[in-house]
Predict the structure.
Amino acid sequence: MRFTDIFIRKPILASVVSLLILLLGLRAISEMNVRQFPEIKNAVVTVSTVYVGADADLIQGFITTPLEREIAAAEGIDYLWYPLLSPVPVLSRPICA
C-alpha cells in the first residue's frame, strides 16, 4: 500500500489535509515581516495645457510635442501616456525609481 492510496480511499482525509496546508500557508503569509516585501515608489508627472481658441494642430505643434520631448528626456521615466479623446492635452509620465 502506497502513501497516496490512503488519500484515494479516504477523500475526506485528503480534503482535511489540504485545508490544513492552506491554513498554515495563510498564517505564514500573515506573520511575514514587512521587511520581506519590496519597497515600491511610484510617482506621476502630469502636465495640462489649455489655450482657448487654439485648434488641435496648433496645440500639438507648439505645446504638446515640445513638452513631450522635454519630459521624455528625463531619466527614470518608463512610458508616456496621454488620452487621445481628451479636450485638454494631458501628458502623464509614471516615474519608477
